[in-house]
Model the fold of this input.
Amino acid sequence: MDWGMANRINRIIRPDTGRTLMFAVDHGYFMGPTTGLEKLDETVMPLLPYADSLMLTRGALRYYVTPKIDTPIILRVSGGTSVLNKHMLHEGIVAGIEDAIRLNVAAVAFSIMVGADYERDTLLAFTEVIDMAERYGIPTLAVTAVGKELVRDAKYLGLASRIAAELGARIVKTYYCDGFEKVVESCPVPIIIAGGKKIPEKDALKLTYDALKAGAVGVDMGRNIWQSENPVPMIKAVRGIVHPVSYTHLRAHETEADLVCRLLLE
Ligand code: R5P
Done:
């Protein structure tokens, strides 16, 4: 692997822990002003110190985030449809490699729709992105999106993740499921999990813990952090699971989320 590619991946997946907390705020690309991201900068900035990387669109990056940050950026480059469209899964390429380079990104992210009507289009567009990104040493993150009619089980997610890696993805983002070890075992590149819809904090922390235990290298989490009533303690708790530390010192000051995190680890 060339130096630039290796360096970018090491900026995303921390070499000291081999893990990553990717913070996702890209939802507006198909959901518009999602609850909690209406003023994206106000939501993101207090949470940024606890994130290893930030995943978002080029518009959100330019309009809401100061270039003074040094958090690695994961740029979403697929889209073109919205929640209002019955063909929502028919995404294409919405940002080119030149703009990704201008934005100094650490990786580009693209959604593939394995098993959906538009499977072929999304897979071929993904390979175009891979060819362009590899030329400049930029890793691609495959996002395995799942159509409503498909089941998020180990068989399906294992299939989609493996296809993503075989096409050339450097990192795969998928969903946690029962038997997740099988998904990890059959995928030759690091896997991270999406958080999904907002669930109780304790459940989201357990999801994180279970996914890491099964072999995921981290999470790409959004709503379960920024839609939490206590987003800073929540991201700190997720971080505590992703990059394990001793929790003994937290006892005196720990929040409920810290406590949940400690209890999960003990
Ligand atoms: C999906 O729309 C995006 O790729 C999100 O970045 C991803 O699903 C992670 O966000 P969440 O944890 O809210 O699912």
Residues 24, 26-27, 55, 143, 194-196, 220-224 surround ribose-5-phosphate (CB under 6 Å).
